[in-house]
Amino acid sequence: MKDKIFVASPFLPDINEYMNEVKDIFDAKYVTNMGPKHNKFKEILKEKLKVNNLDLVVNGHMALENALQALELEGEVITTPFTFISTTNAIVRNNLIPIFCDVDPTTLTIDANKIEDLITEKTSAIMPVHIYGNICDVEKIEEIARKHKLKVIYDAAQAFGIEYKGNGIGSYGDLSCFSLHATKIYNSVEGGVVCAKEESILKKLEIIKNFGLSGEDVLEFGGNSKMSEFHAAMGICNSKYIKDIIARRKELYDKYKEKLNNLRDVKILENNKSATNNYAYFVILVDKDKRDNYLKHLESNNIYARKYFYPLTNEVSCYKDKFDLGYTPIAKEASEKVLTLPLHTNLTDEQADKIISLTLDFFNN
Ligand SMILES: *Cc1c(COP(=O)(O)O)cnc(C)c1O
Fold it and tell me: What's the chain's Rg over C-alpha atoms?
């Protein structure tokens, strides 16, 4: 483990800082079920995300599942196949049918100009993804949703901290879901956030995450997706470092970009210019015939880049023969070329330099 360099690595606070938070939990003997740490963390996140209504859940995936359940959707949901499998699984696990829309070649987010062609009388919602923290065309999507009376649920798992026109990105759509997983830029070990436009939906989300309970009665067929006090404690500790985390990531990102910019065979995915950036990933596109050899070249030096996102979610075994998997050639091409390089706060300058020189060696030969 020690010498291996992975794509992601969790940010952890000083252990004593975490212990101080944990001591409160031991003193109170209140370990889960919306305790003081949970509630404090919620207030911190409202400020960090610049939203009025949010709730915490156990992870980003359950944020998505609960969001879809709270809106009581039926039929078809238009979404992107260029994402982590969680997005598509959340749709299918709600007994909804995913309809795959192609992506924009420059941002790799859902191509808003292709959404309307996919709308049928069965369409109930759009579920776009701010992939790599690149924001979707939120204005165009809102316009389409209003015109066709569709709900919009953003998978914002990778978009923590991003602002667009001064608004927190979580304030777009009917609901927006963030992940606080250990591999994301800011983590509570495991954790998820749902931001809701309407307060009534927020209330429903609070019930859904706790078995549907309301007093003795049960109002929704909810599962259990509550965030524990220990996870909230980690989120509280780490919240002090969000600015530092993003600043360090930017340094590494800029270093990669400066050094790899001129390689003919490497195209760096541009960060969104209209919104702020969180430097969640350093994404490159390389010729598909070279990708595996480049990965091997890095692996032989203990560096583990990832084909993130490959395969597309409409190509995986469990969806074959079940759905119309659509025609998404731009997403397909991107998935065959894309790679993400290690980028995290535990990466040293020396390690980044090593990755850069191995990359230059490979592509200049
Ligand atoms: C991480 C991620 C999820 C799932 O979040 P978890 O907190 O790991 O459950 C969902 N969608 C996308 C795009 C993600 O990157």
Answer: 21
- Give the pLDDT of residue 2: 59
177 beta partners: 155, 194
Q: What is the pLDDT of residue 298?
A: 97
Protein residue closest via CA to atom 6 of ligand 1: 60
Best probe residue, ligand 1, of 61, 131, 176, 231 (max atoms within 8 Å of C-beta): 61
CA–CA separation, 339 vs 238, rounded Å? 28
Structure tokens given for 238:
């780490």
185 lines ligand 1 (CB under 6 A): no
266-269: long-range contacts, CB 8 A cutoff, minimum separation 24: 266/359, 266/363, 267/337, 269/108, 269/132, 269/134, 269/338
Structure tokens at 114: 């292709």
- Bridge partners, 175 (sequence order): 153, 196
Q: Which atom of ligand 1 is nearest to the CA of 180?
A: 7
In testing the pocket of ligand 1, which one of 68, 80, 84, 227 has its CB within 8 Å of the most ligand atoms?
Answer: 84
C-alpha distance from residue 11 to each of 190, 248, 259 (Å): 12, 11, 25
Kindly state if the Cβ of 305 falls inside 6 Å of ligand 1: no
Ranges in the chain, pLDDT < 70: 1-2
Instruction: Tell me what pLDDT residue 272 has.
Output: 84
Say if ligand 1 is within 6 A of residue 84 CB. yes
Three-class DSSP category at 189: coil
The candidate with the shortest Cα–Cα distance to 282, out of 342, 332, 234, 346, is 342
For the question of whether the overall pTM of this predicted structure is more than 0.90, the answer is: yes
Residue nearest to atom 5 of ligand 1 (CA): 60
What's the pLDDT score for residue 356? 98
